Amino acid sequence: MCGICGIVDYSGKPVEKGAVGRMCMALEHRGPDGEGIYIDPPGSVGLGHRRLSIIDLSDEASQPMHNEDSSVWLVFNGEIYNFHELRPGLEKKGHRFVSHSDTETIVHLYEEYGEDCVNRLRGMFAFAIWDAGKKKIFAARDRAGKKPFLYSWDGQRFVFASEFCAMLESGSVRRDIEENAVSYYMSLGYIPAPMTIFKGIRKLMPAHTLIADASGVRTRKYWDLDYTSKLRIGEDEAAERFLELFREAVKIRLYSDVPLGAFLSGGVDSSCVVAMMSEFTRVKTFSIGFEEQDYSEIEYARQVSRIFGTEHREFIVKPDALDIISLLTQRYGEPYADSSCIPTYYVSQETRKFVTVALNGDGGDESFGGYERYQAMNAADKIGRPGLRDISRVVSGLLPDSTEPKSFSRRVKRFLGNAGLPAAERYLRWVGISGDIRLADLYSRDFAAKTDINAPLELLKPYFSMPGKMDLLDRLLKADVNTYLPNDLLVKVDIAAMANSLEGRSPFLDHMVMEFAAGLPSSYKIRGSIKKYIVKKAFSNKLPGAILGRRKMGFGLPVGRWFRGELKDYLRQTLLSETSLGRGYFDRDKVRSMVDSHTEGRRDLSFQLWAMLMLELWHKKFIDERTVC
To answer: How far apart are CA 359 and CA 261, in angstroms?
Structure first.
């Protein structure tokens, strides 16, 4: 697990080693154990690497890594879990290895199979290969999008890195803002790939490869999930098959030459991971909680810890957690509105004191149907029929607003208010952060005129209109796997963990587990009120009903309460400052009204205000202060 960067200049200008060095230093937190820089003999290529030593701690495993004749050079971020299986076949074909690392396997796979090498990899990865003979960069990103890959191309110079700060340190990237990205951000809470907040920087999409040469940059998708071909399999067999695949996915993620543990929230997915890990080793578990009990799952985590006899540690997040917000704004590099990045950062920080690798439960909900919104979307299809649609809107309008986002009345009002909308718009209202705030009213007149307010909805529409035999649940899962999962959840965990030099591994995101889940009929995912049905059936003999049957809590931060209490002054001073109001994004009177409505307890606007706060803090750091990372 590492940080990677590089510059390739096709105009023939030499790449300054100092520029690559500055990029590497911006990634030091991702790789505190060493640095490597390669400048090719003509001088027009520079590759950089910061190392977090996980597998093969020797110097032979250092990067950039090359093949036998130094015609191929690699920088790699991630882990390849099947490298032990791949290596013997490559050795039989005559490839010579000098290390025991998974990194070297990619080098020789590329030599042998070229761009097709990615299809043989099982793991999480973002890498770039300089092919000296063909004068090209070949890069790839893993199937689920666990590992990040940013790049820029100005017609002559190709620059890439794991994080935004490193891109900016290259000296080749401007800080011009992509205004449409703000529209995506204020609707979704994140900026979806391939777009970024900077006009000149792009994200390589998950499951894509990239080629950069003198003629330009080209990308290609190499993998996708098939939700249309369903397995003909009984429930018992499906549960057993899932257990086999999941056991293997966990087992191969336990290979490490450094201490290893697990995040344990007390939810179904992390509990399943810990239960399976305990079959192979005594587990170190780490949990995060809040003083606000309706936001804290820590008692459930303790229960799972006791069942499996884990070595357990806990950390409580308090309102002064926002002390870390400046660092997180820098690490994320673009506006990011998922407030759970703060507890994720803190649990990563505490975990790193004891281990270097932590398994987690990411991806279980998006593959096996774990969110309440999936059930709500299905139910809304019935209520959304003519007649019932009008009734639901009337009833929604009669219900009082609640200032508590987790209250039952708030959920009912939200459900009824969205029930009559078309599927894509209804989905956006469930996953988005704008709620019933119309962005056209929130934006200033000038900004609304130059941004595409409908872009986020257009991004989602294809998942609900694509041809083929896919029911609504499969369309929802496909939308989440391609948008919410890689652009929000996986970004959150990668940045928060790597900011603490901690590697996260996700068994539910093993591509073989994901392919199996996509092939299951929807009735094996959601059955009546039971979400993740087949997962819970498979673990019914390993985990108690109190864990498997409890309502999903989520990992949100109680910012709504904090904005009315300890952080009220901070919110007002930041968002209502003349600097913030003068940005030109939002209507001044609307911002004042929103802040007053929330802080005075008339409405809950915590999601919208948090997003606006994070946008302002990003603007200060990256545009006003022009942060040098």
So the answer is: 6
Residue 42, pLDDT above cutoff 90: no
Three-state secondary structure string covering 272-328: HHHHHHCCCCCCEEEEEEECCHHHCCHHHHHHHHHHHCCEEEEEEECHHHHHHHHHH
2, 165, 272, 341: the active-site residue:
2
| pLDDT tens column, 167-208 | 999 999 999 999 999 999 999 999 999 999 999 999 999 999
Which residues belong to CATH 3.60.20.10 in the chain?
2-221
Closest residue by Cα to residue 19 from 154, 170, 202, 175:
170
Please check the confidence at residue 394 and state whether its pLDDT lies above 60. Answer: no
Q: What is the pLDDT of residue 534?
A: 98
- Give one word for 312, left, alpha or beta, with left for phi > 0 and alpha for psi -120 to 50: beta
Q: Is the pTM of this model over 0.85?
A: yes
Burial class (CB in 10 A: 0-12, 13-18, 19+), 114: exposed
Please provide the DSSP assignment of 27-40 as one string.
TGGG-BT-EEEEE-
**Confidence check: pLDDT of 415 > 80:** no
CA nearest to 617, candidates 192, 325, 320, 342: 325
Q: pLDDT, tens digit, for every residue of 499-537?
A: 999 999 999 999 999 999 999 999 999 999 999 999 999
Beta carbons within 10 angstroms of residue 229's beta carbon: 8
Domain 2-221 CATH class label: alpha beta
**597: nearest Cα among 583, 588, 609:** 609
Write out the residue limits of the CATH 3.40.50.620 domain(s) in the chain.
235-368+481-548
User: Residues 265, 555: contact at Cβ < 8 Å?
Assistant: yes
Statement: residue 468 has pLDDT above 80: no
* pLDDT band per the 50, 70, 90 thresholds, residue 446: very high
Let me know if 24 is a catalytic residue: no
- Which pLDDT tens digit goes with each residue over 315-367? 887 767 677 888 999 999 999 999 999 989 999 999 999 999 999 999 999 99
Name the CATH architecture for the domain at 235-368+481-548.
3-Layer(aba) Sandwich (3.40)
Q: What is the model's pLDDT at position 281? A: 95
Using DSSP, how many helices (H) and how many strands (E) does the chain show?
A: 29, 17
Over residues 584-589, the mean pLDDT reads: 96
Nearest to 119 by CA among 133, 98, 140: 140
Q: Report the distance separating Cα 416 and Cα 411, nearest Å.
A: 9
Each as own residue / partner, the long-range contacts of residues 436-444 (CB below 8 Å, 24 or more positions apart, any chain) are 437/594, 437/605, 437/608, 439/183, 439/186, 439/187, 441/587, 441/590, 442/186, 442/586, 442/587, 442/590, 442/591, 442/594, 442/608, 443/585, 443/586, 443/587, 444/584, 444/585, 444/586, 444/587, 444/588
